[in-house]
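Q: what does this look like with PAZ bound?
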Amino acid sequence: MESNWEEFYANQPKPSDLETSTKLLDNFVKRYSSDDTKIALVTSGGTTVPLEHNTVRFVDNFSAGTRGAISTEYFLKHGYAVIFMYRAKSLEPFSRHFTGQKFLDMLDLTQKDGRPQLTVCDKYSSSVAEALVKYKSAIREGKLLQLSFTTLSEYLWLLRAASQAVAPLKKRVVLYLAAAVSDFYVPSNEMSVHKIGSTIGAPKIALHLVPKILKPLVSLWVPEAFVVSFKLETDENLLISKARASLNTYNHKLVIANMLQTRKQKVTMVDKDKDYVLSLTKDQMDQGEEIESSIITDLVKRHQNFLSPNDSS
Ligand code: PAZ
């Protein structure tokens, strides 16, 4: 059974670091309250659904946070200030370029005056320098705030806090909801306290439907923002109809529809009036082009049009 969102927040305990996150969010928003900087709240990565309070086991999903981490870099490039809400240990902007490299293999160790000196190996030095310059400048200019979550419940608490924090910035805010959020969960009061044992046989675990959070988000928490959701499917026949159904139900601005298998190569931008595909050729993929570059360029234009509908430039 689907619980409503008020029940969810009444029954699922708050994360212990929510107050700290809220303070960071408030400071970030204050910095931009009196200028015209555009803001993106990006959610990224998957959520876990714990089966026990003292969690040994949990349900998870495939998302690596690639979409969110890459998109954050492009939002920054377009001058946005970004709140990057990501699953702990998933990909992060800038450092994501070195995923798959062994960290220690990227470093060299020498001695100078009897003291150890660390340097980056020649092979990696220019790519590390390029990423580091961009990362440091985003942090120094206060353009990037990173907040992490792990469980579904942490995600939903943080999403509400972040949405409510950015709401005063009104139309300047884009919500870019790329996280792969679980549709099912075990409510706190039905969860085993300790590790589920196997002596009495296989457990029967009843999953409940997660409330549709887009509803209060669009209508109550950030009613003036430019809200963009993602729709992931594995059956191509359902993709566009489901994306359109979501737009009609929640009344937000845009759904970016993608298939699990081709999500790095092709997406469909679906709004109330039309839909069209953004895609990369095989050559473009081989040359390292990223679909997020086209997504964010398109989105920035839409957001600008939303801010100044009569400005044709
Ligand atoms: O994180 P990732 O790059 O591996 O995958 C991105 C994605 C497929 C999770 C994202 O593009 C998306 O569709 N998010 C919403 C998923 C959903 O329908 O719940």
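The longest strand covers residues 226-233. Residues 63-67, 178, 180-181, 230-232, 258, 263 surround PAZ (CB under 6 Å).
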